[in-house]
Amino acid sequence: MGDHQAAAAGDGGAAMEEPIPPPPPTDPETMARWYQLEALERAVRGNTLAFLETGAGKTLIAVMLLRAYAHRVRRPESRRFAVFLVPTVVLVGQQASVVQAHTDLRVKQFYGEMGVDFWDDATWRSAVEDGEVLVMTPQILLDNLRHSFFRLPEIALLIFDECHHTKGNSAYACIFKEFYHPQLNSRVSDPLPRIFGMSASLIYSNGLDPHKYSKNI
Q1: Can you give the CATH number for the domain in which 181 is found?
Q2: Secondary structure in 3-state letters for 49-118
Q3: Which InterPro entries does its entry note (predicted)?
Q4: Number of domains the chain is built from
């Protein structure tokens, strides 16, 4: 014991203290309610739309799903990432913060004020190189797909916040009409992203049968 103490102090100064590692992210499943866990189970199995009232914890389901997909975005043999789409710039920061608080995934934020409209392919590739979850507004993803900066097979999980905006010629709707559905109906075997949509509102369409909500989206 004495020899060990002498060796520790024998370099002419106090021993360096190792930095304390940050605490692990809180596991959201420990605070999830039964209906959130049920929605998670369904989302892991297939494309899912979650309609829950405001304050019911839709984002928590999305975070749990991101954790479940972590191994898919970390496969060294295939570079893929998750994309979390939100309709406003304010929500970009809010949802990115929630994901960072409850996962150890590397989160990147993108919005128009960053000048992304003027980025070329090389700039985008550099910006997302080490990102595992990309939080952005839908127009940014749509523009990237149109310019072939991103391809759908690169996206393992695609989350649509406030998915009731998926109608008409909205950016949400165009992502499906121009890219997702054509590839789904083609013979190309490239993987498509898992889709998770969430909203507190039903789709605004007069006379729409409630049983056709998911088909409408």
Answers
A1: 3.40.50.300
A2: EEECCCCCCHHHHHHHHHHHCHHHHCCCCCCCEEEEECCCHHHHHHHHHHHHHHCCCCEEEECHHHCHHH
A3: DEAD/DEAH_box_helicase_dom, Helicase_ATP-bd, RLR_Helicase
A4: 1
Residue 141's domain comprises 36-216
Three-class SS of residue 215? helix
Question: Measured between alpha carbons, how far is 75 from 77 in angstroms, rounded to an integer?
Answer: 6
pTM of the model: 0.80
Number of H helices, E strands in the chain: 10, 6
The CA distance from 66 to 78, in Å, is: 17
Report pLDDT digits (tens) over 78-123: 789 999 999 999 999 999 999 999 999 999 999 999 999 999 999 9
Match 């940050």 to its residue by tokens.
22
